[in-house]
Amino acid sequence: MEISARNGLKGKVDDVKLGEVMASIKIAVEEPGIITAIITKESAEDLDLKEGDEVKAIIKSTEIMVAK
Asked: Per the database record, which ranges form the Mop domain (predicted)?
């Protein structure tokens, strides 16, 4: 996958909490430890995020996106 963002941290999904509209995805990374990304429930389901998945936290300005 090619994207323009350059601030990416590899990690593993530590926890997935699905709400009615949004999803909270906790990602364990080497430093600083845990990053929490708030993404839409639809995106979490489309990516089929599960605890233990290898993912990358992509940081752009005030947002954190999730790539799998």
From this structure: 2-68
Residues 23-44 have pLDDT tens digits of 999 989 877 678 888 899 999 9
Tell me the C-alpha distance between 16 and 3, whole Å: 24
**Model confidence, pTM:** 0.55
CA 21 to chain centre: 16
32 exposed, middle or buried (CB, 10 Å; 0-12, 13-18, 19+)? exposed
Cα separation, 34 vs 52, in Å, equals 13
Q: CATH says 7-67 is which class?
A: mainly beta
- Which residues are 16's β-sheet partners? 25
